[in-house]
Amino acid sequence: MLDRGPLCLEVNGRGHILDLPDSTLLLEFLRNELQLNGPKFGCGLGECGACAVLIDGDCVRACVLPVGNLRGRRITTLEGLGGIASPHPIQRAFIRAQAAQCGYCLNGMIIATKALLDRHPHPTDAQIREALRHHLCRCGTHLEILAAVRLAADELENASSPAS
Q1: Smallest Cα–Cα separation from 12: which of 68, 89, 93, 73?
Q2: 163: pLDDT confidence band, cut at 50, 70 and 90?
Q3: What is the pLDDT of residues 109-158, one digit of tens each?
Q4: Is 1 among the domain residues?
Q5: Which whole-number Å values give the CA distances from 103 to 4, 71, 82, 100, 109, in the listed order?
Q6: Chain center to CA of 95
Q7: 16, β-bridge pairs
């Protein structure tokens, strides 16, 4: 891939000018340059899902994606959804459902859930399982994660419904 000079990227709604080779992996940029630690380094092969981010609303693996491919795209990390002071409803649902043990997979699970619920506000269990099937959780909180996704769908629906 040929470098084409400084690269402008939008991450979590803010513009960033990069003076990095186009071949720099997105995960390296996010963690090393922006100190965004939501996306985790897991396998480095795009298989475990710990590094997942949203690009234009699609859940993708940041560990295998060169920044040079991202001109004009919107990147959202876990930090772009919400934080400690104001968590996103999906983050709140994962907390309420106690869907974490070690927490390493949660970035990817939450990001994948966001992409799923944006497309299917009322997903079936089959749709939830399909959306999360390539995100590995070694702690065995799969049932809690499924419950968190259902709870998030309910919370988002309630948040968007007009008050009675």
Answers
A1: 73
A2: low
A3: 999 999 999 999 999 999 999 999 999 888 878 899 999 999 999 999 98
A4: no
A5: 38, 31, 16, 5, 10
A6: 16
A7: 9
Rounded to whole angstroms, how far apart are CA atoms 53 and 75?
A: 7
What are 53's strand-pairing partners?
A: 60
The strand pairing partners of 33, in sequence order, are none
E strands, 44-136, where? 52-55, 58-61, 74-76
Domain count, the chain: 2
- 151, part of any domain: yes
Q: In this structure, is residue 16 part of a structural domain?
A: yes
The CATH number given to whatever domain includes residue 148 is 1.10.150.120
- Of 36, 65, 81, which residue sits at a domain end? 81
149 close to 116: Cβ distance less than 8 angstroms: yes
Q: What are phi and psi of 62, to 5 degrees?
A: -75, -20
Q: Which residues, in sequence order, are bridge partners of residue 76?
A: 54
Q: Which domain holds residue 117?
A: 89-160
Question: Does residue 2 fall inside a structural domain?
Answer: no
Cα 40 to Cα 107: distance, rounded to the nearest angstrom: 7
Among 81, 102, 130, the domain boundary falls at 81
- Looking up tokens 């939008």 gives 10
pTM > 0.85: yes
